[in-house]
Amino acid sequence: MLRNCRRVYSIQGIDGVSHGKTKISGLESVSCKGHQAESVSGITAEDGHGTIIAPKIKEFEMVEPMKHEKGGFASNGKFAAGGTINDTLGKASVDSIEDEAWNLLRESIVFYCGNPIGTIAANDPSSSSILNYDQVFIRDFIPSGIAFLLKGEYDIVRSFILHTLQLQSWEKTMDCHSPGQGLMPASFKVRTVPLDGDESATEDVLDPDFGEAAIGRVAPVDSGLWWIILLRAYGKCSGDLSVQERFDVQTGIKMILKLCLADGFDMFPTLLVTDGSCMIDRRMGIHGHPLEIQALFYSALLCAREMLAPEDGSSDLIRALNNRVVALSFHIREYYWIDMRKLNEIYRYKTEEYSYDAVNKFNIYPDQIPPWLVEWMPSKGGYLIGNLQPAHMDFRFFSLGNLWSVVSSLATMDQSHAILDLIEAKWSELVADMPFKICYPAFEGQEWRITTGSDPKNTPWSYHNGGSWPTLLWQLTVACIKMNRPEIAEKAVKIAEKRISRDKWPEYYDTKQARFIGKQARLFQTWSIAGYLVSKLLLANPDAANILVNREDSDLVSAFSSMLSANPRRKRDWKGLKQKFIV
Ligand code: GLC
C-alpha cells in the first residue's frame, strides 16, 4: 500500500500468519488464529549483492501471555477489557504506590496479534488530544522493558526487540526521500486493518514513524542506540544470548553502527545531528553535537562490541568502532568537561589561535561564559556541557547526557563523582519538588524566542525548557548505584513518592522548583511510571544495575592517564588514532 510516498507495512504479511477476529467485552480485537507462539521472521540479511533477503528465522514463544484478559491494550492500541484506570486506582488491591505503578504499567501494554509488544506512551483519559501518545515509542519503552526484565518477564522485551528490528530494515521515505538504512523508528502503532480479499477479517499491521509524521519531522537518532542498549540488557538479565546471536539481530546491530560510523564532512568524533533528535524532540537549540546523543552513542558502541560475533566480514567495522570509542571518550572528557578550574581557564582563554597545539581549539570567546554559571558552578563538582561547536559552548546542564555519561563510563571516575557532587550541591535547583530537571537553566525572554522559535510548549521552566521529568529518576538511580552512592537516588525517590501517584504520574512538572504539574503534561505517562519502578527495583537489588552499566575500558584508562594529567599547553594529538578526528 503506497500512500503519498509512505508505506504501511504488515509484518504478518511477511510470515503468513493467519488472522481472526475475537470479541473481548464488546471491543473488537485481532488475534492470530491458532498461534500461541508467534513467528517473527528475520528479514534483514544481505545476500552479498546488497539485496535484502527475508529468511525465516526461528520462532519465539510467548510463554506467558500478559494480563490481556485483565485489561490492557488490544492489538489496535485501544484499551481493551477489564475496566478503566479509575477502576484500577480504586481497587482495594492497589495498596501501595508500587502496586499501583505495576497495574498501570501492565495496563499500558500494547498487543500485536494477541501478544505483548510494547507499552503505550501515555494513557491519559482526561486528555482531549492524543497526538501520538497512543504509540509505542522506542525511547519510552526502555524503562518499561527494564522493569519487565527486572521482574523476570522477558517475553515482552524479546518481542519488542525483534519486532522493532523488522521495522528498521524497511523502506521508509519522507517526501520521497529515504533516510539512511539502519534508522530505527521513533515510535510505532499497531493498526487493525481489513484483510485483503476478505471483508470479514482483519489483520494487525505495525505502522512505524521514522519522523515523517512526527511534530517537526525530527529524526530519532537515539532510537537505534537505545535498542542496542536494551538488547544487551535483555541478554545479561535473562541469560538468553540466543536473541543477540541471531543473524538478523547481528545484521541489525551492524546497520545501526554503519549509519553512525559513516563518513561525513564532520571533523569531530561526536555524532552530528539536527535539533530534536533525542528525548528533547523539538527545537531547543541542541543541534550539532548534543551530549545526550554522544553518551548514548558511546554506550551503544560498547554494548555492540560486547555482542558482535567475531567474523571476518566485520573486522573493519570493529576497527572503526574501536577507534571511535577512544576518540569519542577523549573528546568528551577533555572538551565537554567543566568545573571551577576549567571555567577559570576558559575565562582567561586567548582567542584566534591558529596552530595544531592551540589551547583554545574551538575559539571560544571568554565572554560566552554566561553570568548564571559564574554563580552556579559549585567549588566541588563539575559537569559535561550540553554541546560544543566552533566558537560555541552550550553551557546548559543536560541531565540525561550527564547521567548516561556516568553509566556508560564516558566520563572518568573522577568526573562521574564530580557530576554527582554537583547534583548534591544543586539539589534545590535540579531536584527541588520533583526529580529531575531535564536541563538547567531555562531559556528566557529573547533567548527563548530565538532558540525555540517562540515555542509555547517550551516556555521557560516548562517541558523541555527546564521542566522536571520524573522518568529521569531511573537513569539517576543507575548512575548513583554505579558510583556506589545509592543514597542520592534514594533521597530523590522519596521526594517523587510524596506526590507522583497523587498527581497521577505526570509526564513533566513546571516552574523552577517543579511545583506545578506541567502545563500540557500527559497524566499516566508510562515512562514516569516505569522509571519509578526501575528505580525501586534497582535500589532493592543494586547488582542488577550491571545490566545497564558499561565498565571503563582498561586500555583507555592507561591511554588517558598520561594525557589528562599533562600541561594544558601540551600537544594533544592522539598518536594511535586516525588523524581525521579532532580529539
Ligand atoms: C515527548 C517527549 C519525548 C517522548 C514522547 C512520548 O515528545 O519529548 O521524549 O518520547 O513525548 O512520550
From TrEMBL:
InterPro entries: 6-hairpin_glycosidase_sf, 6hp_glycosidase-like_sf, Glyco_hydro_100. It catalyses: Hydrolysis of terminal non-reducing beta-D-fructofuranoside residues in beta-D-fructofuranosides. The keyword Cell membrane does not apply. GO terms for cellular component: chloroplast. Keywords: Carbohydrate metabolism, Glycosidase, Hydrolase. It comes from the Eukaryota. It is an enzyme of class 3 (hydrolase). GO terms for molecular function: endo-alpha-N-acetylgalactosaminidase activity; sucrose alpha-glucosidase activity. Gene3D superfamilies: 1.50.10.10. GO terms for biological process: sucrose catabolic process. Its EC number is 3.2.1.26. Invertase that cleaves sucrose into glucose and fructose. Belongs to the glycosyl hydrolase 100 family. This is Alkaline/neutral invertase. The lineage of its organism: Eukaryota, Viridiplantae, Streptophyta, Embryophyta, Tracheophyta.
